[in-house]
Amino acid sequence: MKNLEWSSLTTTKYFDVTIAPVYDSKQKFLGITLAFLEITEGKKLREKLELTNLESSTLKNTLQSLTSELNIAQIELASVRQEIKLLEDTFDTDKSLDGNIDGSIDESMNRSIDTSKTNADSN
């Protein structure tokens, strides 16, 4: 018999019990032997190991979930960085275009003024 529980007011112990017949040299039945092997510590250690394995499995699943979420966040962050870079590039291009347009307008205005002065000087 395996895992027999014996409880007292203060403790609980577990035993494996082996029952075997005893015979004499002529194979006449004399009786039985009972062997009690206390397995309390081993049982407690197995239960503790099972609990630790369950906790480990739960932590592993949580870690895998967090890793997956982190990977998704990294992908999203990379996408946002690309968008920001595109916006910066677009802003820089627009700014240089604006500078070119402003410069062209200034040159045109200066030419007009120069032409007006030249025309006024000729008259």
Rounded average pLDDT: 85
Q: Assign the structural class, choosing from mainly alpha, mainly beta, alpha/beta, alpha+beta, or little secondary structure.
A: alpha+beta
What integer value in Å does the Rg equal? Answer: 46 Å
Q: What's the main sheet like?
A: 3 strands, antiparallel
What sequence of helices (H) and strands (E) makes up the elements?
EEEH
Tally of DSSP β-strands: 3
**How much helical structure, as a percent, in the residues?**
55-70%
Strand fraction equals 15-25%
Strand order of the largest sheet: 1-2-3
Distance N terminus to C terminus? 130 Å
Q: Could you list the spans in which at least 5 consecutive residues all have pLDDT below 50?
A: none
Morphology call: rod-shaped
The number of helical elements comes to 1
Give an account of the 3D structure:
This protein has one helix at 40-122, and strands at 4-7, 12-23, 29-38. The mean pLDDT is 85. It is α+β, with helices and mostly antiparallel strands and 123 residues long. Strands 1-2-3 form a 3-stranded antiparallel sheet, with helices on one face. The protein is 67% helix and 21% strand. The longest helix has 83 residues, at 40-122.
Question: Summarize this, please?
Answer:
By secondary structure, this protein is of the alpha+beta class. The protein has 1 helix and 3 strands, in the order E-E-E-H. The mean pLDDT is 85.
Features:
3-stranded antiparallel beta sheet, alpha+beta, rod-shaped, 123 residues, 3 strands
SSE layout and pairing:
Blueprint: E1 4-7, E2 12-23, E3 29-38, H1 40-122
Antiparallel strand pairs: 1-2, 2-3
